[in-house]
Amino acid sequence: MSIFTNRIEREARTVEVMIQLYCKNQHGLTVQDCPNCSELQNYALDRLNHCPFHEGKTSCKNCPIHCYKPGIKDDIKQVMRYSGPRMMLRHPILTVFHFIDNTRKEPLTVLGQNRVKNLDLAEDCNGPVD
Ligand code: SF4
């Protein structure tokens, strides 16, 4: 698998670099040395790995479930707001993919062929998690 063919892997790499950038510039730390950013990164990667839409997912901001718990959702939004505009120069390939991936406005089925008709298909997801 690679970031070119696997959306989950690509989004995982994107969120990692965005949190790294945020932590370096805002906290003066690496993520490994920052308890808050480590926790945020682990949480985001865990959510991605349990995303019920798999490769058919939308961007999380367009998701009908919004599986992040409220406090963490605010934290990740803060990271996105800071790192998003700084990504193009540092990670142009991920940034281009991010724009392309954002064009999907509704999740697809696991096979990526049909639009999800109801959220029962999201049975893997327990909604916001602690
Ligand atoms: S369920 Fe929605 S918010 Fe959660 S990881 Fe999947 S796309 Fe993102």
How is this structure best described in words?
The protein has 130 residues and is mostly helical. It has one domain (7-117). It has 5 helices and no strands. Helix 1 (7-27) runs antiparallel to helix 2 and helix 1 (7-27) crosses helix 3. Residues 120-124 have low confidence and may be disordered. Bound molecules: iron/sulfur cluster.
Helix content: 40-55%
Bound molecules: iron/sulfur cluster
Largest sheet report = none
Count helical runs: 5
Number of structural domains: 1
Beta fraction: under 5%
Would you identify the regions where 5 or more consecutive residues have pLDDT less than 50?
A: 120-124
Report how far apart the termini are: 29 Å
List the secondary-structure elements in sequence, H or E: HHHHH
List keywords for this structure.
130 residues, mainly alpha, globular, binds iron/sulfur cluster
Describe what is shown at a glance.
With 130 residues, the chain is mainly alpha-helical. The protein is 49% helix and 0% strand.
